[in-house]
Amino acid sequence: MSVVNLIAFNRKIPVKFIKFTRELQLLTNFKNIRCISTSTYTSQIRNDDIPVHIFDRNTKHLQRERAASATDVNLYDYLKDEIGYRLADRVFDIKRKFKLAADIGCSRGYVSKHITPDSVEELILCDSSKANLDSIKVKDGLKIRKQILDEENIHFEPNSLDLVVSSLNLHWVNDLPGAFKRILNSLKQDGVFLASVFGGDTLYELRSSLQLAEIERRGGLSPHISPFTEVRDIGSLLSRAGFTMLTIDTDEIVITYPSMFELMWDLKGMAESNAATNRVIHLHRGTQFAAAAIYQELYGKYDPETGKSTVPATFQIINMLGWKPHPKQPKPVERGTGEVSLKDLYKLNEIIREVKKVKTDDDQKN
């Protein structure tokens, strides 16, 4: 797992912090809290075939349109730009030229602007926002098609695509198992699916601060951060959909902000705020200030040289790769055919040398 610290230099608005009450100071023993989780939804998705309608897709569409038409939209691209670049780099790692590919939920082209004609011949750009599609620029020589598409209802001709990519988009889909199955159906045999989504540890600092503030101020709590998919769920969902040769890994990107309020403002500018969820999301002003104070106390850092305080925000990125089955793909050997026991792994170098020696002797005899 790689940890990259990115500084959002554009967020330098000074904020005055309120003083802590004794009750809030008692909460500092939660310094290492990472997950007061809202995993009910993900467990339901994992165990049931019936989709759970957590997100309002119409609200999400309006949210994206508003963010895309904002005059300062470029100000909020820093995180999605970074993840899009990393996902495009994974496409280049596959030594193959893809004839037809699709970028599902392409947004402002965070992945597609890095794709070259040497790796993809034709690319279908898909997004629910026309404003996003109109703003995309790609490299010269790359053939493109633009298509209005809701990720909840992915539809392509069966066995028509060689590659499907999606960057930071599928975590807003209610029926994730169904989306994976439709993507598999659209791929040709030995086709590739590459995607990145936010993972369960994303914004754990903000989540825990809001929940602790609500407990202190309101005597109870409600979820204000959208539920994210867990790493353990992605593998099982891809396998159930029918993908093979899975590769799943995670990255952690930590971005620092002057305070919790700049973080929440940037999430809104990224069209990643909680407004699209089917739940009451009102936060009382007193709870917000209490949460900001808790955030600063539990996770904040003070720089004595500049005299400024900052707070970190962690974004966990789950990267997934799956292949549509093909008869010529490598297959695992049958159980019981292994020649080396796991208990002998500590002397693996000796075993390899012995195997090479035996093969050399056999070659000399022949």
Automatic annotation (TrEMBL):
Residues spanning the signal sequence: none
UniProt xrefs under InterPro entries: Malonyl-ACP_OMT, Methyltransf_11, SAM-dependent_MTases_sf
The keyword Methyltransferase appears for this protein: yes
GO CC annotations on file: mitochondrion
Domain Methyltransferase type: 103-194
Record carries keyword Nucleus: no
Assigned keywords, A-Z: Methyltransferase, Transferase
Sample GO molecular function, one term: S-adenosylmethionine-dependent methyltransferase activity
GO biological process, alphabetically ordered: methylation; mitochondrial respiratory chain complex I assembly
Pfam family, one: Methyltransf_11
PANTHER family: ARGININE-HYDROXYLASE NDUFAF5, MITOCHONDRIAL
Identification of the protein by name: Arginine-hydroxylase NDUFAF5, mitochondrial
Organism: Ignelater luminosus
Lineage per the UniProt record: Eukaryota, Metazoa, Ecdysozoa, Arthropoda, Hexapoda
